[in-house]
Design brief:
With 393 residues, this protein is α+β, with helices and mostly antiparallel strands. Among the domains are: 57 residues, no CATH class; 30 residues, no CATH class. The protein contains 10 helices and 13 strands. The strands form 6 sheets. A 3-stranded antiparallel beta sheet has the order 8-7-9. The longest helix has 18 residues. It binds a DNA duplex (11 and 11 nucleotides) through α10. GO terms for molecular function: DNA-binding transcription factor activity; RNA polymerase II cis-regulatory region sequence-specific DNA binding; zinc ion binding.
Amino acid sequence: MAAASTALALRAPRDSMGVVREPGPWQRAEVSLSCCDSGARFERDRILESQVGHCQHHILPTQQPQYGSSYSPQAPPSSVIPVPKHRLDEAIAAAALTSLSSGPMVLGVGTADCNGQQYRDSTGVSSIRRSMNNSDLYIEMPASSTPSPPLHSAYSCSYPDAAIEDSDTTHLLFGDPIPRKRKNSGRIMFRCLWKNCGKVLSSSAAIQKHIRTAHLGRNVEQEHNDGEEDFYYTEIDVNIDTLSDGLSNLTPTSPTTCGPPCFPYAMSLGAVNGTEFPLISPLSLSAPSNLFHVHSDHAYQALSPVTISDTPKVGFSWQSPPLLIKAPAVLPVLSVTEKVQPQAITAPSSKPSPVTRKPRGEAKKCRKVYGMERRDMWCTACRWKKACQRFID
DNA sequence: TATGCCGGGGA
DNA sequence: TCCCCGGCATA
């Protein structure tokens, strides 16, 4: 990739929405980005202009998503993100790890989270922004009355001094060395993600039409377009590296969008605009063992099992999401003292028990402690082959 | 295979 | 109610 020389640790005066309000020296600072094809360079404040100009296919997506009325239109980006240079490496590394480790578990539900933000660009390859401990980046999504499709959207930042206009710009700003969408090594195709379909068409219009008619059962002539079909296809670059392709196959993002699926950070707080989402933390997906760690050494301490029913529930309807959320992936962020019972999420085991049998405790029981020789020292329950009352799990 | 414990039955 | 045990589930 043509280098994007950045000196991003710049701060611009912004209003409460993270919008740069007043020009200042920062705008004339040494931020410049290079077009990967033409080599044309853009000064920092020219980047925004380029969104609709010369180099938009390298810096920003060329098309606006064709969402319907239910979708909140994108607000024009107004600034770029100030990101300290020293954060870039960390973000890049995190993105790579997450892309590799999360796999299908994050399908379709890229999250924006200040403690491990995950985004997905137009090809479905995740990029992640790691926790910015003190400042630098804090992302929330624009309000939307419906679960927003994967979109090219204005991700304003809750930190007053940060804002992101879209993830493609973010690729530059974060120094993503492989901006998938900018590759011109192959032709962009569009693949239907509907289960057992996988049809590949050459244009977004065609694939949308295919999805509308074949899967959504809608009339081609139907004017109303709520953009739902955008969920069900992704773009693929037929000559692009397999990693990018493979991941994009798994991601029902809009071909015309570069933003991540718009599941807001505020999800973790329960609801956004009346719609609840599960928080899917990339961290929890990639390293569940950290989250589910339970000290078995303290088996005598009763741990309250937390089942999926204790977690935020998916409050929106979703029509046959193809290849989207696999249940075990929906793992809430839990404290380390909480415990998840995966069987509460996954399909029930082979033979349903008529009575919910108490899970076998891990604590040493009287039999174990005292042995058969000292059976008289067992608790009554143990002697009666009942649940031990002395060493309770 | 060992262990935990549910369900049932006898005293 | 106490006590025991068959049998099942699980580690």
